[in-house]
Design brief:
By secondary structure, the protein is α+β, with helices and mostly antiparallel strands. It is 16% helix and 29% strand. Strands 1, 2, 3, 6, 7, 8 and 9 form a seven-stranded antiparallel sheet that branches. The protein has a four-stranded mixed sheet with strand order 10-5-4-11.
Length: 177
């Protein structure tokens, strides 16, 4: 299994465990190194601070949810990004760090794996043009004026997988109560 970390910094020599969000079965103050598996890695083919919503069908996703949120096309994921971020996505220099998976534990959450150890990467490589990388990974990049409709529509209650990343950076983002 391949595990990765993505960064705009090409010079990380050692990944030190950092304070983590609370995870089941782990102490609240645990410090971790995070990595993502290959299938889910396109979630991170973006500048770090770029707000984005990624959707993909699950085995039990309803066809009407797929049609409503993903629409036609032969894509495995759809990535919605605010138009104001598209130029940054196009011009971002991103690096993919590879890890030996031995010390990592799968937390069974959208491809995330964690390790309590400081780790040296096995390799680092420049990603190249991110829109092309997304296309090669069968991810449809869809610019939108705002990500707010995703909060209002409660897409996360659909039968699709919903990942919202860095949404606090989205223009006017707020969840409806």
């Amino acid at each position: 299994m391949k595990l990765f970390h993505f960064s705009e910094d090409p010079n990380i020599r050692l990944f030190e465990p950092r304070q983590s969000r609370p995870l089941p079965r782990l102490p609240a103050d645990v410090r971790l190194v995070w990595a993502i598996d290959e299938w889910h890695s396109p979630m991170y083919f973006f500048p770090r601070e770029c707000p984005r919503v990624l959707l993909w069908a699950l085995n039990d996703s309803l066809p009407e949810d797929v049609e409503m949120w993903m629409g036609p096309g032969d894509f495995r994921m759809v990535a919605y990004v605010e138009q104001q971020w598209i130029e940054k996505v196009e011009n971002c220099e991103l690096y993919r760090y590879s890890f030996d998976a031995e010390s990592f534990v799968d937390i069974r959450d959208a491809g995330f794996h964690v390790s309590r150890q400081a780790l040296e990467p096995v390799a680092v490589e420049a990603m190249g043009r991110l829109p092309e990388q997304l296309m090669a990974a069968q991810v449809d990049l869809r610019p939108v004026d705002s990500l707010q409709p995703f909060a209002d529509a409660r897409v996360w209650e659909s039968s699709l997988h919903f990942s919202g990343i860095k949404l606090h950076n989205a223009r006017g983002w707020r969840l409806q109560e």
